[in-house]
């Protein structure tokens, strides 16, 4: 199976295209890995049903027993619980940072620590979340896994 | 993540106690000091180990509070109990005139070193993570 990467200027969104005659074992394995990353999540906003790929979600937050998913500029109410999201999607970069929120590691721009050892997480959409000390170990463990995955992909 | 739990509490106390006693003996050997209150001090080391591990085990329950007040609060509890212990001991046996100062130093120095290492590791982790995130962009 060949991988052809093409850089295109002014592309609105990155995309993958698969050309095949038959889906062989190798291709199926690649698709299986992608399936996790390209999952979609459904929710409601202003009475309308909206669907977003998981990779577009910046973070999830639970407010008054309701769960919300935030994208670059939209917020949708979803049915899943934070616990459910973590157990299903932690392999695609989601990690818990407080009792009420889960962040997508791929959407983090930078971290900043304060004197009280709370970590401020600045996202790529310039929003800021706060990570409690209690979730630090879990966060860095997830980051370590992601780093390992990135390293493997670069080596390949 | 709870590092100290009821299953490993005593093994952590034993390890800490062994390290403290070995350190004490090594230090005394190096400076040629003979401890006249050897047995009293050994039990004091054990008491401090149990107390310190107990206070540190509470750290997990205090994670939702800001670090600085928690660290200061834990230090005050440890130093308070240690000095109270010395004061009680002074009623039953003879203690050195510098006992309070010595205990203050013995508790404060390791505590401050531990806290500083913990604090530095926090910012080092952030620095490393930021390097990774900037590479991801």
Automatic annotation (TrEMBL), chain A:
Gene Ontology terms, MF aspect: DNA binding; phosphorelay response regulator activity
Keywords: DNA-binding
Domain HTH LytTR-type stretches: 41-145
Record bears the keyword DNA-binding: yes
SMART domains recorded: LytTR
InterPro entries cross-referenced by the UniProt entry: LytR-like, LytTR_DNA-bd_dom
Pfam families assigned: LytTR
Identification of the protein by name: LytTr DNA-binding domain-containing protein
Automatic annotation (TrEMBL), chain B:
Keywords for this protein: Membrane, Transmembrane, Transmembrane helix
Transmembrane regions: 7-26, 38-58, 70-92, 104-124
Taxonomic superkingdom: Bacteria
A Pfam cross-reference name: DUF6608
Name recorded for this polypeptide: Uncharacterized protein
Biological source species: Butyrivibrio hungatei
Source organism phylogeny: Bacteria, Bacillati, Bacillota, Clostridia, Lachnospirales
């Amino acid at each position: 199976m060949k991988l052809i990467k093409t850089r295109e200027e002014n592309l609105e969104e990155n995309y993958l295209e698969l050309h095949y005659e038959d889906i062989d074992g190798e291709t199926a394995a690649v698709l299986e890995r992608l399936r996790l990353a390209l999952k979609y999540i459904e929710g409601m906003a202003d009475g309308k049903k909206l669907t977003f790929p998981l990779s577009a979600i910046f973070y999830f937050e639970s407010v008054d027993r309701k769960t919300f998913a935030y994208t670059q500029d939209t917020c949708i109410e979803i049915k899943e619980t934070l616990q459910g999201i973590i157990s299903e999607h932690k392999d695609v970069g989601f990690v818990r940072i407080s009792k009420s929120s889960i962040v997508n590691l791929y959407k983090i721009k930078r971290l900043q620590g304060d004197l009280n050892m709370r970590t401020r997480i600045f996202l790529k959409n310039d929003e800021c979340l706060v990570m409690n000390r209690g979730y630090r170990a879990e966060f860095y463990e997830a980051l370590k896994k992601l780093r390992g995955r990135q390293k493997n992909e670069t080596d390949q | 993540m709870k590092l100290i739990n009821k299953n490993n509490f005593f093994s952590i106390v034993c390890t800490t106690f062994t390290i403290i006693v070995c350190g004490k003996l090594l230090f005394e050997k190096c400076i040629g000091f003979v401890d006249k209150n050897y047995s009293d001090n050994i039990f004091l080391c054990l008491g401090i180990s149990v107390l310190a591990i107990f206070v540190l085990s509470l750290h997990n329950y205090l994670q939702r509070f800001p670090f600085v007040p928690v660290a200061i609060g834990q230090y005050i509890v440890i130093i308070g109990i240690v000095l109270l212990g010395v004061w009680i001991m002074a009623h039953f046996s003879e203690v050195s005139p510098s006992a309070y100062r010595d205990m203050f130093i013995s508790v404060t120095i390791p505590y401050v070193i531990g806290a500083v290492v913990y604090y530095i590791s926090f910012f080092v982790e952030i620095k490393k993570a930021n390097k990774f995130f900037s590479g991801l962009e």
